[in-house]
Amino acid sequence: MLRPKIPTMPTPTGLTTPPAVVEPTTITSITTTPPATPTSATRSRPTVQLTPGTALALVGGGTAVVLVVGAVLVSMLLAIAITGASLAICALVIRSLVHANAKRR
What is the pTM of this model? Predict the structure, then answer.
């Protein structure tokens, strides 16, 4: 009744190809010298120039990111601390209840 039914592997229909035969080949190493790269006097991309406004924006953005990440981490730590304290209080209450119940007998 509770035996699993294992599906049978379907047989391929139509044309099947025989397995390919792999023949060993010899490896010949060819050493080539890389072509010389011409040195250019001009830079290929422009340099980034920071103005006081963009530097201030970068500092402000970095500060905001640090504050948000710090607030999230502190709130997670606080949640863990509150959970640990409540578990400790529950353990003390249960222990005192069990100890009081054992005293009465």
Answer: 0.45
